[in-house]
Amino acid sequence: MKEMAPGKREINYLRISITDRCNLRCIYCMNEEGINFLAHDEVLSYEEILHLVRVSVQGGIRKVRLTGGEPLVRKGFIPFLEKLSGIHELDEITLTTNGVLLEEYAEAIRNCGICRLNISLDSLKAERFHGITRRDCFDRTLAGIHAAERAGFDPIKINVVAMRGINDDELVDFARLTMEKPYHIRFIEFMPMGDSNGWEQKRFIPTEEIHQRIKVLGPLNPLPNHRLDGPASRYKIEGATGEIGFIGPLSHHFCDRCNRLRLTADGQLRGCLFSDSEIDVKTPMREGRPDSFLLELIRQAIRSKPLDHGSLEAKPKKCVRPMSAIGG
Ligand code: SAM
Ligand code: SF4
């Protein structure tokens, strides 16, 4: 029988942080020196991740997203992806990347049967991109997006973290891209995470405000959500080719629609980004416990998923772990 999370939520989506390391240092995610990165033997090996995915499909998981840190910096990523895409019970495998290495890898990723990609880009200006990511990789990121287009990814979702006084003068420019390009531009509310992400109330822009601001381009018509879609609300500007999505974890309670579980880079299952309660699956797996035991832990993580994370906009809760280790 399928395990349901409280609130009768079907949990079919597993987000996996395959590494906490990264080639950028985004101001909202890490400090300049990075974070206290995990030691190599603390991080799940590819074989261990594959093992856990094979078990989790027995618990109802049908979609996997690979994220990090930056997934493409981990050695051996393509052979791992080939093996993952051989797990036939999965209906969908997707990837979130900063795009820096995509020019090199887009075709190989597409050849593994992956069709959908999320690429993060918070500015359309080279200098500002440098300010936000602390690295000089703007041209490589754009080249990565173009390589993804040539390789035939559809859709290409562009994740934009909206930050007041940092990139909010570009929100309309990002939305305008959907008039010409088939991109799905997804505006994400700036979240307080870890202890090195510089979150301040004055930098926070609620989804509602972003929505209002981009309405200058035309009416935003709502689109329906699919079964494997996450909590983004989707819209299309009248006459546009692409879509707009809003992800408002602080201002909007989408917990009743949250279908996801997270696996951290060091093998902890988490039911909610904003709850620090975790279930260790790495230790029992390394001790050689049977799959039935691991499956029960996965079911337990689903059952103990919090019903909601409370009102975060009024009283933001800082998540203890950095986003890169949990898997954003
Ligand atoms: N390195 C990859 C990337 O940047 O796309 C994948 C990992 S990153 C942690 C995943 C997503 O989380 C990115 O879209 C990033 O913008 C988002 N993110 C990270 N920290 C965030 C924060 N404090 N608030 C909102 N979004 C955040
Ligand atoms: Fe790296 Fe992604 Fe975090 Fe930026 S958001 S530092 S690209 S993991």
In CATH terms, the superfamily is Aldolase class I
Helix share bin? 25-40%
Assign the structural class, choosing from mainly alpha, mainly beta, alpha/beta, alpha+beta, or little secondary structure: alpha/beta
The major β-sheet equals: 12 strands, mixed
Distance between the termini: 29 Å
Secondary-structure blueprint:
Elements: E1 4-5, E2 9-10, E3 13-17, H1 46-58, E4 63-67, H2 77-84, E5 92-97, H3 102-111, E6 116-120, H4 126-133, H5 138-151, E7 156-162, H6 171-180, E8 184-189, H7 207-214, E9 220-222, E10 233-237, E11 243-247, E12 260-263, E13 268-270, E14 278-280, H8 282-286, H9 291-303, H10 323-326
Parallel strand pairs: 3-4, 3-12, 4-5, 5-6, 6-7, 7-8, 8-11
Antiparallel strand pairs: 1-2, 9-10, 10-11, 12-13, 13-14
The chain binds S-adenosylmethionine and iron/sulfur cluster (SF4).
Structure overview:
By secondary structure, the chain is an alpha/beta fold. It has a single domain (4-326), classed as TIM Barrel, CATH 3.20.20. It has helices at residues 46-58, 77-84, 102-111, 126-133, 138-151, 171-180, 207-214, 282-286, 291-303, 323-326; strands at residues 4-5, 9-10, 13-17, 63-67, 92-97, 116-120, 156-162, 184-189, 220-222, 233-237, 243-247, 260-263, 268-270, 278-280. The strands form 2 sheets. A 12-stranded mixed β-sheet has the order 9-10-11-8-7-6-5-4-3-12-13-14. The chain has a two-stranded antiparallel ribbon with strand order 1-2. A hairpin with a 4-residue loop joins strand 12 and strand 13 (268-270). Helix 1 packs across helix 9 (291-303). The longest helix is centred in the middle third of the chain and has 14 residues, at 138-151. It is globular. Bound molecules: S-adenosylmethionine (SAM) and iron/sulfur cluster (SF4). S-adenosylmethionine binds at residues 22, 28-29, 67-70, 96-98, 120, 159, 161, 188, 190-191, 193, 197, 323-324, 328. Iron/sulfur cluster is lined by residues 22, 24-26, 29-30, 68-70, 98, 120, 324.
